[in-house]
Amino acid sequence: MSLSRWFRDYVYISLGGNRRGAARTYRNLIIVFALTGFWHGANWTFLVWGLYHGALLIIERGFHLDTAPHTRRAAIARRALTTVLVIIGWVIFRAAELPDALAMIGHMLLPDFSGLNDLVEAALTNQRLIILLAALAILFLPAHPVTGPLLESSRTAPAKALRVGVMTAGLFYSAILVATGTFSPFLYYQF
């Protein structure tokens, strides 16, 4: 049983779920997400993270945003907004203290580039610069570049082998870069 199912079955439904009106549903959501925050740890950031997600669900239900958008543009906008809101939640969750989270969110929303040159200079090695330039080149290539007929539309054995070879080499190289990049201990190790 997953944590979300446990909270749904034993807390949310036990409190009445969404059967007794909007106000009770919102109360139940806040309780469940506050408990979810407490479950993750004894820090204010976890409680605020839980309350934040509960508040987002209440806003979604209150403004009837839980229906599927009717246009492609609206769907893309909602996905982008969801991504931004989830990233803000991750900042709250991962921060050591609440003021740290608020400072990070402030810098995300109103960027401050002072001191960035030193950080970029230290982090931007020749290898990373080449990877960045290659990624930008791939991103901005036209849909059908000169190699398009060979790599995209050709179904011959050499073209398939070339595609698989490039993808395999990229996969292994990416795995090596990730493995040697930085040490990041398991998040729950701090508890």
What does this structure look like?
By secondary structure, the chain is mainly α. It contains 9 helices and no strands. α3 (44-62) runs antiparallel to α4 and α4 (72-94) packs antiparallel against α5. The radius of gyration is 23 Å and the shape is extended. The two termini are 22 Å apart. The model has no long low-confidence stretch (mean pLDDT 80).
Category from helices, strands and their pairing: mainly alpha
SSE string, helices as H and strands as E:
HHHHHHHHH
Give the biggest beta sheet.
Answer: none
Q: Supply the number of helical segments.
A: 9
Molecular shape: extended
Average pLDDT number? 80
Number of strands: 0
Whole-angstrom Rg: 23 Å
Helix content: over 70%
Strand content: under 5%
Intertermini distance:
22 Å
User: pLDDT under 50 segments (min length 5)?
Assistant: none
Write out key terms for the chains shown.
191 residues; 9 helices; 0% strand; mainly alpha
Chart the SSEs and their pairings.
Layout: H1 3-12, H2 22-40, H3 44-62, H4 72-94, H5 98-109, H6 116-123, H7 126-140, H8 148-153, H9 157-181
Helix pairs in contact: 1-2, 2-3, 3-4, 4-5
Summarize the structure.
With 191 residues, the chain is mainly α. It contains nine helices and no strands.
